[in-house]
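Re: the 120-residue chain
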Amino acid sequence: MSHPAGFPRQARLLRKMEFDHVFKNAGRSSDLYFTILFTTGQSERARLGLAIAKRVARRAVDRNRIKRLVRESIRQESTLPIVDLVVMTRPAAVQARNSDLFQSLEHHWKRIHRKHTHHV
């Protein structure tokens, strides 16, 4: 049972097949901290997949901090269209301040919204 601020199963990409679909059909948004792949959703809501590589963020505490930030940013984002997203971290994200990562993610969500609404 998830509590209201949690991240429900139906808001996540869970299977390899779902990740593969995004990788194969993706639009891309990149900056210093993140590369985000997105494609038209196969669900009735935006869904998130996280691909935080150990070679980029070696320590579990760093990977977990970044994952928490991404999930929180998505929760607060109300304008995201129905897309499937895969968020990948770039090396600079490990040393970045939380506020910088949050700002970066907000820019990505806006960019994805613009790009996606032009494609549909």
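The radius of gyration is 14 Å.
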